[in-house]
Amino acid sequence: MKIILTQEVENLGAAGDVVEVKDGYGRNYLIPRGFGIRWTRGAQAQADSIKAARSARAVRDEAHAAEIKAKLEGSPVDVKVKAGQGGRLFGAVTAADIAAALGEAAGESIDKRTIVLGNPIKALGSHAVSVKLHDEVSAAVALNVIPA
Predict the structure, then answer these.
(1) Are residues 17 and 61 in the same domain?
(2) In Å, what is the CA distance from 113 to each residue of 8, 35, 38?
(3) Cβ atoms of 127 and 145 closer than 8 Å
(4) Which end of the chain is more exposed for a tag (fewer CB within 10 A), N or C?
């Protein structure tokens, strides 16, 4: 079965890629969860637009990704959030909050979907996250979650 991926799927492909998968995997997992759509000639135009949007968002090349990695790993990044007594947060720090703080620190826009959070961040203090800047380049970033 041919599937056009609408999101990145680990060990399968990125958004806009046309992949060949087993019928059950496509029918029972990818399509119901919105990770892909069934391939048709008409849907191929949609796949091309997804790829164009992805390339506009993506970091230009590996050298540029290494440059951004150096900026991000150079010093800890401060993320300001609402917090109550005892350093307890109102909710958790989201990938969008982290992406905004990283964007300010790097001077470049960082896509929130490239941020890998191990566990939800629900307390003030230092935390570590990983940012996948390019297929071959990942940055380990130190975050300081501080009250706003």
Answers:
(1) yes
(2) 9, 14, 23
(3) yes
(4) C
